[in-house]
Amino acid sequence: MSSDFFNLLERLVNAGVDFVIVGGFAGVVHGCTYVTQDVDICCDFSIANLLALQTAISDLDPVHRMTPGRKKLQLTEQTCGQFKNLYLDTKIGQLDCLGFIDGLGDYDRVKRASMLVEVGDIKICVLDLDALIKTKRAMNRPRDKEALLQLEAIKKLKKSPDSKR
Amino acid sequence: MFAMENKQNNSRKTKSKSAQADHLQAAIDYGIDVQALIDNAGRSCAERIKRHQIALNTVESLRKAREL
């Protein structure tokens, strides 16, 4: 089955999962033109939130994509505390759930640096442009160079309405 | 004293403006299609996500075709 990131995000929102879109897909929401093959979210790693996340995607055959044999996602109240990040694959796309973001901090800090975006009938929290630039700078990975240049150009374009058509 | 502070503020503003202009030029120099960014700026978030999905589906289709 092909990826369907909107469906994935819609499920999380409808299940009441507390999360913020970060990473490459947040860049797409802000206007970057590259294609990304996964959705990164920063979420509250509380037991209730992780179990809600699991329920939201349970019919999508979620697996831990970085474990040998791609183990099924089978969180319980007892095992939730073992995870700081979850790198998942589902039938409709990869979903990386992070508990901490370089340059910003934990979920509470990330949430404070987010904005609500309306997409269709749902509202999704997305890391704001300045915070996204900050995290890309903090990570300083060669592969983020183009994303950072695009984000800084987008920021500049937003500040100069005359540069828009 | 006041005039000096003003001068410093103006200098800071000028530097900041030039840094912003540099960002756009840096993107152009790197080969980024700035016109595509401008086009995207005029779209809603929903439209950007939709267009990204179309592009991703195309990439996935091409990848699958190559695997056959």
Please provide the count of β strands of chain B: 0
* Average pLDDT metric of chain A: 94
Low-confidence sequence ranges of chain B = none
Question: Which two protein chains have the largest interface (Cβ within 8 Å of the partner's Cβ), and how many residues from each?
Answer: A-B, 35 and 31 residues
Can you characterise this structure?
The complex is a heterodimer of chains A (165) and B (68). Chain A is an alpha+beta fold. Chain A has helices at residues 5-14, 23-30, 47-56, 107-112, 129-139, 145-159; strands at 19-22, 38-43, 63-64, 85-90, 93-98, 100-101, 105-106, 114-119, 122-127. In chain A, the strands form three sheets. In chain A, strands 1-2-5-4-3 form a five-stranded mixed β-sheet. A two-stranded antiparallel sheet of chain A has the order 6-7. Chain A has a two-stranded antiparallel sheet with strand order 8-9. In chain A, a hairpin with a 2-residue loop joins strand 8 (114-119) and strand 9. Chain A is globular, with a radius of gyration of 16 Å. Classes of the chains: A alpha+beta (165), B mainly alpha (68). The interface between A and B is medium-sized, with 35 and 31 residues.
Can you give me a brief rundown of this structure?
With 165 residues, chain A is α+β, with helices and mostly antiparallel strands. Chain A contains six helices and nine strands; from the N terminus they run αβαβαβββββαββαα. Chain A has helices at residues 5-14, 23-30, 47-56, 107-112, 129-139, 145-159, and strands at 19-22, 38-43, 63-64, 85-90, 93-98, 100-101, 105-106, 114-119, 122-127.
Keywords:
heterodimer, A: 165 residues, alpha+beta, five-stranded mixed sheet, two-stranded antiparallel ribbon, 6 helices, 36% helix, B: mainly alpha
How are the elements arranged and paired?
The complex is a heterodimer of chains A (165) and B (68).
Chain A: H1 5-14, E1 19-22, H2 23-30, E2 38-43, H3 47-56, E3 63-64, E4 85-90, E5 93-98, E6 100-101, E7 105-106, H4 107-112, E8 114-119, E9 122-127, H5 129-139, H6 145-159
Helix pairs in contact in A: 2-5, 5-6
Chain B: H1 2-30, H2 34-41, H3 45-67
